[in-house]
C-alpha cells in the first residue's frame, strides 16, 4: 500500500471518530399523558435543563400521549433499550416484579403531599428506587401527580353506589382490591384506551387525578366526578441502567443535576395543575363535581381500610409499617 493511501486511511478514521464524538447522546423519554399535565410539563422541563446543562451533548426527545408506547410496552421498551427514560405511575411496577411500589396505591395511606414527601424523599424512597437495579433499571426520582378522584355516570357518594360497576384501573393488585372492597369490578386497561372505553360503555367509570381526567377529555364522557382524594398517583422516573452507567461521568452528573431541578419543578406544580384542571372541568359544565360530607368520607374509609391488611403481604409488612411511621 502506498504511503498516501495509508495517510488517507488514517485521516478517514480520525474524521469518523471526530464526527461520532460530536453526535449528541439521544435520550428518548416516552410517557403516556398529555403535554399539559404535571408529568408532561416536567418531562419538557427536564429536556430543557438537560440540554442546557450538557451544552448540547445530550438531546432529549420527549414522546407524550402514548405516541411511542402504551403502558406495558413502554416498560419492555425501556428494558430492551428502545427508549432510555420513562416516568410510569407507581401503580405500574407490579408486572416488573417490583410489587412494593404498589404500597403507594393503598387507599387513604397519605393525607397530603407533605406526608407523602417524607416517604418519597427519604430513605424509604431511596431504597425502593434501588430495588429496580436488579431489573436493569435505574430509578432517578419520584414525581408527583396528585390525589385521585372517582368518576362514573352516576353519583358515587356511598360505597353502596359502586355495586355492580365496572371500573378501569391501572395494573396494580392493590387497586384491584380497592375496587372490589367497594363492590365494583376492576378492569385493567392501558391509559390510552380509557377515553374510548368510557365513551362506549366498556367500563362505567374510573379514578385519576383531575389533571389526567381533564386532559384526556374524560369529562366529556363521565357525568359525575366525586372529590374523594382516596389515593395517590405519582411517578418514578426511570432509565435503562446499562445506558445510564455507560454515560461519560461528567454528562451523567449534569443529567442528575437536571433531574433534581425537574423534580423540584414537577413537585411544585402538581397541586396547582390539578386545581386548574378541576376549574376547567367545572367550567366545561359537562361533569357534575360532587363533594363528600364528613360522614360519607368516613363510610369510604371504613369500606377501604381493610385493603391495607389484605394487601400487606403483597407490598411488604415492614415497608407498610415504615411508611405508616412516616405518615402517622
Ligand atoms: C393511568 O394509567 O391512569 C396513569 O398512570 C397515567 C399517568 O401516567 O398518569
From TrEMBL:
PANTHER family per record: C4-DICARBOXYLATE-BINDING PROTEIN DCTB (PTHR33376:SF7), PTHR33376
Protein name: C4-dicarboxylate-binding periplasmic protein DctP
GO CC, any one term: outer membrane-bounded periplasmic space
Species of origin: Denitratisoma oestradiolicum
GO biological process: C4-dicarboxylate transport; transmembrane transport
Recorded superkingdom: Bacteria
Key words, A-Z: Signal, Transport
Stored Pfam families: DctP
Entry's family note: Belongs to the bacterial solute-binding protein 7 family.
InterPro entries reported in the protein's UniProt record: DctP_fam, TRAP_DctP, TRAP_DctP_sf
Name of the gene: dctP
Amino acid at each position: 500500500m502506498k504511503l498516501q493511501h495509508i495517510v488517507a486511511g488514517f485521516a478517514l478514521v480520525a474524521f469518523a471518530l471526530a464526527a461520532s464524538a460530536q453526535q449528541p447522546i439521544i435520550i428518548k423519554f416516552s410517557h403516556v399523558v398529555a403535554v399539559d399535565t404535571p408529568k408532561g410539563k416536567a418531562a419538557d422541563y427536564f429536556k430543557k435543563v438537560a440540554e442546557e446543562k450538557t451544552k448540547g451533548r445530550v438531546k432529549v426527545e420527549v414522546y407524550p400521549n402514548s405516541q411511542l408506547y402504551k403502558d406495558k410496552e413502554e416498560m419492555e421498551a425501556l428494558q430492551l433499550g428502545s427508549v432510555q427514560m420513562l416516568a410510569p405511575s407507581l401503580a405500574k411496577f407490579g408486572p416488573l416484579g417490583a410489587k412494593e411500589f404498589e404500597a403507594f396505591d393503598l387507599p387513604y395511606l397519605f393525607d397530603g403531599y407533605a406526608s407523602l414527601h417524607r416517604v418519597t424523599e427519604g430513605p424509604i424512597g431511596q431504597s425502593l428506587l434501588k430495588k429496580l437495579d436488579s431489573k436493569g433499571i435505574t430509578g432517578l426520582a419520584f414525581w408527583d401527580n396528585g390525589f385521585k378522584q372517582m368518576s362514573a355516570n352516576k353519583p358515587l357518594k356511598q360505597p353502596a353506589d359502586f355495586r355492580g360497576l365496572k371500573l378501569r384501573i391501572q395494573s396494580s393488585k392493590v387497586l384491584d382490591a380497592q375496587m372490589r372492597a367497594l363492590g365494583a369490578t376492576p378492569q385493567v386497561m392501558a391509559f390510552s384506551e380509557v377515553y374510548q372505553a368510557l365513551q362506549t360503555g366498556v367500563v362505567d367509570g374510573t379514578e385519576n387525578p383531575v389533571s389526567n381526567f381533564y386532559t384526556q377529555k374524560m369529562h366529556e364522557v363521565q357525568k359525575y366526578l366525586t372529590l374523594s382524594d382516596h389515593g395517590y398517583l405519582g411517578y418514578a422516573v426511570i432509565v435503562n441502567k446499562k445506558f445510564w452507567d455507560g454515560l461519560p461521568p461528567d454528562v451523567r452528573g449534569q443529567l442528575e443535576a437536571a433531574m433534581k431541578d425537574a423534580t423540584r419543578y414537577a413537585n411544585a406544580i402538581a397541586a396547582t395543575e390539578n386545581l386548574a384542571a378541576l376549574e376547567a372541568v367545572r367550567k366545561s359544565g359537562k361533569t357534575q363535581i360532587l363533594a363528600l360530607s364528613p360522614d360519607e368520607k368516613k363510610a369510604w374509609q371504613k369500606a377501604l381500610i381493610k385493603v391495607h391488611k389484605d394487601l400487606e403481604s403483597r407490598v411488604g409488612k415492614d415497608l407498610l409499617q415504615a411508611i405508616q411511621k412516616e405518615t402517622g
